[in-house]
Structures are given as C-alpha cells and as structure tokens.
Amino acid sequence: MRAQASVLHLDLDAFFAAVEQRDKPSLRGKPVVVGGIGGRGVVSTASYEARAYGVRSAMSTREARARCPHAAYLSGRFDAYRATSAAVLGLLRSCSPLVEPLSLDEAFVDLAQARLADLDVATVTAFAEELRASVREVTGGLTASVGVASSKFVAKVASDLEKPDGLVVVPPGTEQDLLRPMHVSVIPGVGPATVERLRRVGVHTIADLQQISEDELVRMLGKAHGHLLHDLAFARDDRQVEAQRETKSVSVEGTYEQDLTDRKLMESLLTRQAADVARRLRKNGMSGRTVTIKVRLYDFTTLNRSATLPSPTDDEAVVARLARRLLEDLDTSGGVRLLGVGVSGLADWVQEELFGHEDDDPEADAIAEPPAPDRAGAAVPPPADPPADPTGGYRPGMDVVHDEHGRGWVWGSGKGVVTVRFETAETPVGPVRSFAVGDPALTRWQHPPPDEMPTDP
DNA sequence: TCTGGGGTCCTAGGACCC
DNA sequence: TCTGGGGTCCTAGGACCC
Fold first, then answer.
1. For A192 and B9, how far is CA from C1' in angstroms?
2. Strand B within 7 Å of which CB atoms in A 232-251?
3. In what order do the strands lie in the sheet with A432-436?
4. Which protein residue's Cα is closest to nucleotide B8 at C1'?
C-alpha cells in the first residue's frame, strides 16, 4: 500500500463481444456471445445485452443458448482482439513506462512513473477520465472501466465497481472502509474452493476475514495463500507493477466433440499438437526441457504426465515422441474428452546452437527413444511447414467418405479429427467413427449431389 | 452428451546430494 | 541397526485467472 493512489487498473468492458459489435454494426445493441460454439463449448465473453438474459462467462454454450437463443454465437477472432489490445497497451505505455498487462483486456499502470503534476485524488481522477476517452478513440469506440487506488488489489476491486464504462478512485486511507462489507470472493485468488473453506468457519465478508488470525489462515489455506489473504484483508499490498513477465510454458489442448477411444487416433492428435507447440516455440526463439501431456477422461478426471529432457528442444519430432510415450502408461479405455501437449522449463535459446548439434551429445535425447529411421538420413531438416488445416478440408454435411467398411457422411471436422456417420444395411444414419485428418483410410471422398444432402438430426 | 483454452502459482512427496 | 538435515530437482495434482 502506497501513501497515494498511484496504481491504475484498466479493464475493457465485455472485450471480445465489444470488438465484434464494433466491427459488425448489425450486432450493436444485440446480445452477442463469444466462445466455443461446439457441443462442449463454454462462453468466453457475453455482451451486456446477453448478460441481461443470465448469460455469463464460463457457462456452457448449451446453457447460454437455452437462456438466450436469439443471441449471435461467435467463435472469436483473436487476431482482431490482439490488434485492439496492442493499441490500448501502446496508449498506456505512452502515459507511463511501467505497464503490466494481465491479459488481452486488462492491465495495471504505475502512475508514480507517469508525467502527472501530483497524485492527488482530483488529479488522478481527471487523468483517468482523459485516459478512458483516449481508449475510446484508439479502439474505435470501446469502453473501459478503471480503478485507481494505493495498491494493485484495491485498484482491481475498484475497476469492477462501476462496470461498464465506469471510474472509481479510492482515496488513500479509505481502503478498509470500502473492503470490509465486501464478500471474500472479490479478492483475486479466492475462488470456489477457498470460498467454501472460509464459509465453513463462518467467514463471508472481508470484515469476517479480519477476525481470523494469520496462523489459522495459514493452517487452512497453506503458507503462501494464508499470509497473502491475511494481508489483503487489511488492504496491505505492496506488490509492484511489473512490466513484461517472461513466458514459463507453451501448450496446446483440445476437447473433442465425441470422447476418443482409439489409441492410434490419440497418438496422431498428440503428434499434431506437439507440432503446433514446437512451431510456436521456434517462432518465439524458445525451447524447453519438460514435455507434459494432459488427458481428461470421460468423467472429467484430469491426468498430467511429464518428463524432462537433458537439454531444451524445439523439435516437433522430439516433443511428439515423448508425448506419445507418456500416453502409453495411461488407461484411456473409458474414453478421453481432452488431450493436450505442453512444454515448460523454457530457455530463450536452443542448446545445440551454442554447443553444436544435439546428436553429438550421446545424452541429449536420452529420455526419449532413438531417432526414427525415416529421420536418420535427413541431412537438412525440412523448413517449418505452415499449420495444416485442422478440418483437413472435410465439410460437415457436404462430403461423403469411404473407408474399407463402407460409406458415410462427414458429420464434423476440426482439431485434426474427422467424424463420420456411417450408413448401415438397416439405416442410413449408422454408427459414428472418428479419424485423424489425413488418415489414409479416408482418402476416397467426394461431393454428393444436393438431393443427397443429409437432413440435420 | 453439464463443465474451453491458455496460462500462473503453490504444495507435497520422493530422489539425490553434501 | 536406527533413521539428522538442508537444498535442489522432478513429478503430479489442484486452485485460480481471464
């Protein structure tokens, strides 16, 4: 906690939905929901018009559709969000050299480093109003909510108070008056599990939290969380605004429309994800030593398996081989709804560039299997290929495919999976099977004449 | 057919080393 | 034949954030 209100928190209102409404005037004033639009999707952002129907972030899209069937459901255009976010960050950095982005739509600004005459409440209030007007200009009309206070914690709480399009400046010395009546869940880091633990000992508000001793909180919540919560309850927060933090891990994951049971398909999906991760590592000049796979089973049980290489890699073949090997130990017979691959233990350099090629080091690939025979003779690695179309060009409801057993309609495509509903002797709407995009078993396909189009179930 | 995707941080236990 | 003790690395899981 500083003596003056020198920390500003800015939060763009309903950001993804607002960008969509900005770019598509027909959506303005209407409910817009951005998120996963498949059968297992969840809401990322709902416009305020959609929130009026009870649609919320993290709600399943299925439930959102039930509450607000007439909303526009969009899967998101992250390039547009990134560009808009960059414009806002540029604006903030023109105000203060010390800006800490928290996500695409949120950032802290250290006003002590800004060119302000002083940090009086009146001065920072005028500055914040000007800033909000500037955000509107550089974003083409998006609104931001802003909080200003003597700490990160209170500034973030404050920015939420008058959403959307609001500004709250908390005068130094009044922080505890503001916080005490509030529910503990306003504290960042207090989620459902912590709320429940606190509820069981009768703690609901921050005033209640102030009554619990620090030792008791540490016993209940662990060392780090306990000490932090005790401090925050009394608005004690010295955390600095930190410019750019370094990336610690890179990962790709996917939830599939139907649970996966075919191990070969899982392997080919992991291989594809490993290639995506490795490509992103290379693009950012990074490499990492620890490969992790994530497997979510049919019942939502989530397993992680990891292994650490002797030296960092950005080679998709190495990541893929290790990922497939980690899968070997897992029982996936009940079905898998999510697969993911990640790399952590990042270094911003690749070891072989400093110490020669990794093949010179007998230990370099020790934990993984030896190089595949088809790779051994390649003197020059092929250039990084562009990301393959995850639908493989298969169009749901449009294409007919054959495998060795018969013919079927393409029912879904995406994330490297083609789902096919096969015809049987009894019914034209038979069993569903999934294949990897590019599976040679599915090379014969054709476009049916319009009168053969299947009707949607 | 409840429950995304990309991250961060913390905890706890075991291996290993001095 | 009695189990110290600290530090670091690795692995697995959980909570949380937007």
1. 17
2. 245, 247-251
3. A432-436, A417-422, A406-414, A400-403, A445-446
4. A248
pLDDT top residue among A95 and A365: A95
Residue A385 domain-assigned (yes or no): no
Beta pairing, strands A167-169 & A144-149: parallel
Annotated binding-site residues of A for Mg(2+) read 11, 105
Determine the nucleotide nearest to A196 by Cα–C1' distance: C15
Residue A186 sits in the same domain as residue A287: no
CA of A348 to C1' of B17 (A): 28
Residues A331 and A436 grouped into a single domain: no
Q: What is the tens place of the pLDDT at every residue in A128-149?
A: 999 999 999 999 999 999 999 9
Residues A298 and A427 in one domain: no
Whether A60 and A206 map to the same domain: the answer is no
Q: What is the CATH number of the domain that holds A206?
A: 1.10.150.20
Domain that holds residue A217: 180-233
Going from the C-alpha of A99 to that of each of A115, A122, A160, A244, A285, the distances in angstroms are 14, 22, 19, 8, 24
Q: Which nucleotide is nearest to A15 (CA to C1')?
A: C18
Nearest-CA residue relative to C1' of B5: A253
**Residue where one domain finishes, among candidates A331, A360, A375:** A375
Q: Which residues contact A436 (CB under 8 A, 6 or more apart)?
A: A264, A265, A268, A269, A272, A416, A417, A418
Query: Which nucleotide comes closest to A247 if you measure CA to C1'?
Result: B7
How far is Cα A51 from Cα A340, in angstroms, rounded to an integer?
A: 31
Q: How far is the CA of A110 from the C1' of C3 (A)?
A: 54
Whether nucleic acid strand B comes within 7 Å of the CB of A223, the answer is yes
CA angle A155, A156, A159 (to 5 degrees): 85
Q: How many domains would you assign to chain A?
A: 4
Q: Which of A113, A148, A168 is the last residue of a domain?
A: A168
The residue that minimises its CA distance to C1' of C12 is: A304
Gap between the Cα atoms of A341 and A192, Å rounded: 27
Same domain, A157 and A17: yes
A420-433 pLDDT, tens per residue? 776 765 565 666 77
Q: Which positions of A are catalytic?
A: 106
Classify residue A170 by burial, with Cβ atoms within 10 Å: 0-12, 13-18, 19+.
Answer: buried
3-state secondary structure of A347: strand
Tell me if A394 is assigned to some domain. Answer: no
Q: pTM of the full predicted structure?
A: 0.86
Looking up residue A155, the CATH number of its domain turns out to be 3.30.70.270
The Cβ of residue A315 has, within 10 Å, a number of other Cβ atoms equal to 22
